[in-house]
Amino acid sequence: MESASDKYIREHSTPQSEALEWIEKQTNIHTNYPRMLSGRVQGRFLTMLTELCGAREVLEIGCFTGYSALCFAYGVGEGGRVDTLEINDELEELTRRGWERSGIADRITLHIGDALDTLKTLSAEGRCYDLVYIDANKREYQDYYEAVMPLLRQGGLILADDTMLGGKVCQDPVPTDKQTQGLVRFNEALASDSRVECVMLPIRDGLTLVRKL
């Protein structure tokens, strides 16, 4: 159920495109966990941040139904490129249908398979990115982070989603499940990493913005 504050924020933000609206609707109809979708406000933030930092090459780890990938595709503009990684191919048809409705599907490349394996391939190809979005297996956030750092240009940005995990990461005692522990490990390592500067934003379930120095 949408809260009054969330409704107010949504109504006072730029509306989403028809293609994004279609993806959101289909995600709610066809998936068991539609809340995994970035949503209108965070999606608008992703597009605007991509535009503001001038990103032309974006890497996304965790595609789901393609909503956030399309948000980045709007942001990179004509000639820009989004590589999105997803281990599950069950939603590929729905994902591609949504992108096709946007008219800019050619900006997005979907890589099906284990993300860490795909990242090794992209590294071997000498790829370089302006912005990286991490929104996949919480147990492996730290592994994703270390794998993408060599692929990120100096001054480039990393966005890590769900870094509060419903407040679990700051509970006392901290839950011992592997997802929570994975995020705690990532958050602690990030806060003390001299290679970057970072800020955790209270957007949805926590969105950490990182800049490579």
Write a concise synopsis of the structure shown:
The protein has 213 residues and is of the alpha/beta class. The protein has helices at 4-11, 18-30, 40-52, 67-76, 92-102, 115-124, 141-148, 178-191; strands at 57-61, 81-86, 108-112, 129-134, 152-161, 196-201, 207-212.
What is the end-to-end distance? 40 Å
Average pLDDT confidence is 96
Multimeric state: single chain
Morphology:
globular
The fraction of residues assigned to DSSP E strands is 15-25%
Q: Give me the number of helical elements.
A: 8
As a percent range, the share of helical residues equals 40-55%
* Spans of at least 5 consecutive residues with low confidence: none
Structural class: alpha/beta
Query: Any idea what the radius of gyration is?
Result: 16 Å
Q: Could you tell me the number of beta strands?
A: 7
Order of helices and strands: HHHEHEHEHEHEHEE
Largest beta sheet, briefly?
A: 7 strands, mixed
Spatial sequence of strands, sheet with the most strands: 3-2-1-4-5-7-6
What can you tell me about this protein's structure?
This protein has 213 residues and is α/β, with parallel strands linked by helices. Helix content is 41%, strand content 21%. It has eight helices and seven strands. It has a seven-stranded mixed beta sheet with strand order 3-2-1-4-5-7-6, with helices on both faces. The mean pLDDT is 96.
